[in-house]
Write a structure and sequence with these properties.
- With about 325 residues, the chain is of the alpha/beta class.
- It has 13 helices and eight strands.
- Strands 1, 2, 3, 4, 5, 6, 7 and 8 form an eight-stranded mixed β-sheet that branches.
- A hairpin with an 8-residue loop joins strand 7 and strand 8.
Length: about 325
């Protein structure tokens, strides 16, 4: 499962070294997140020094943990990457470090493991002579059968005045979907590309993405104190940057969070009260090396959310 290799991959792509890279090549990304979190704290009412819960914390590459610890009485990091969270806490000055703890957990409530159990009941190699649409049908059935908790439960956390979803939302569904396509590749090399264009698979995959997304929004709701505020930070669309990339280059956009998965802002406003418009900015994730190795640039959304009943009172 991809989720099992996440910690090892994060050691390469996250942490202090990547943060220094972002300061040089994508400083706006870091500045926008820091401003969003400070503003979000301003919407958490009547808490004095608030407590904060950060889903998808990892090594806190983009989260200004030391600065946050200065105005929060307690911070709980939640992620599967225990090593990354330990490294993030170690970077914080000693006295402030005492305010931070972490909980190692699968934020989806174990979807990848449950999906893997279903995938392993199928003899994929025996489908070598099957038609592509037959494999697509089986794959879609697997996704339809995958149990996704409507409201994931994470032991060891309590509702907090500030809740943050830190660039984790699309990973929650993309990693298990990669596991599915990897199993399809056992049928015939490259077949996962064909499956990805199949109408039945697209329907099932988008429904799976939507279930995961709505479950995560529900997790934010249940983890947020009645008069608190949540910050949802998520990649929204992606661009491929060519070797001749300049900031003015027009690049094709791929929606990572399509409207069929989450309609923004309408569905967020249906579930939460949004005290201000959703923010958007660019995140340079990787610069192109050559034409063969393009870079990656993402459009990011940042939304401040509150419980409706409390916010409108």
């Amino acid at each position: 499962m991809r989720i099992e290799t996440l910690t090892a991959e994060n050691k390469i792509s996250q942490g202090k070294k990547q943060r220094e890279w972002l300061k040089q090549y994508s400083p706006q990304h870091l500045a926008k997140i820091e401003k969003l979190l400070k503003d979000c704290a301003g919407y958490a009412k009547n808490h004095g020094a608030p407590d904060m819960l950060i889903f998808g914390a990892g090594a806190c590459t983009e989260i200004p943990l030391s600065k946050i610890a200065q105005f929060c009485r307690k911070i709980v990091l939640v992620d599967l990457d225990a090593d990354g969270m330990k490294a993030a806490i170690a970077e914080v000055a000693g006295p402030l470090r005492k305010r931070i703890q972490f909980v190692q957990a699968d934020i989806t409530g174990g979807v990848s493991q449950k999906l893997d159990d279903i995938l392993n009941t199928i003899d994929w190699r025996a489908l070598y002579d099957a038609k592509d649409n037959e494999v697509a049908h089986i794959t879609a059935e697997v996704l339809d059968r995958a149990p996704v908790p409507e409201s994931p439960r994470i032991p060891g956390i309590a509702p907090a005045a500030i809740v943050v979803s830190s660039l984790i939302l699309t990973q929650l569904f993309s990693l298990p979907l990669q596991d599915v396509l990897q199993k399809v590749a056992l049928v015939r090399a490259g077949m996962q590309m064909t499956i990805g264009d199949n109408t039945e698979y697209i329907r099932a995959a988008n429904l799976f993405r939507r279930k995961i997304t709505l479950a995560h929004l529900r997790l934010l709701q249940t983890s947020l104190a009645p008069d608190g505020a949540a910050a949802l930070i998520s990649d929204f669309a992606g661009h491929i940057a060519r070797a001749d990339y300049t900031p003015d280059t027009t690049l094709p956009e791929l929606r990572i969070l399509p409207s069929s998965v989450l309609s923004i802002p309408s569905e967020l406003e249906k579930e939460f009260y949004a005290p201000e418009p959703i923010r958007h900015w660019q995140w340079v994730n990787k610069l192109p090396d050559t034409a063969k190795y393009p870079g990656r640039i993402y459009t990011v959304i940042g939304a401040i959310l509150q419980h409706k009943s409390e916010s409108l009172a």
